[in-house]
Specification:
Layout (H helix, E strand, L loop, with lengths): L1 H8 L19 H21 L3 H34 L1
Helix pairs in contact: 2-3
Amino acid sequence: MAREMRTATGTTALDMPQGDDSPFGVDGPFGSLLRDLRTLAGTEALLTTSDDIPTIRFLLSLAARHAEAAMVRARLVLAQTQEGEAE
């Protein structure tokens, strides 16, 4: 269905191969990126409710680690999708 929608809207360059070599698999960098983003969203929610300094420091360190990992994984997925467009 997604492939048909991309074709109908003329965004066929985004049409990625299906299977193990797809950069959008849940076991690869894309799935890890999604998990990092969920962790960041949860950390944001906890930071809005916490007033304990040690807890806030822990949450900030958690946010820093996952933000950096998400940046690296997002760049990796971007590079993989650009390779897919060149083919």
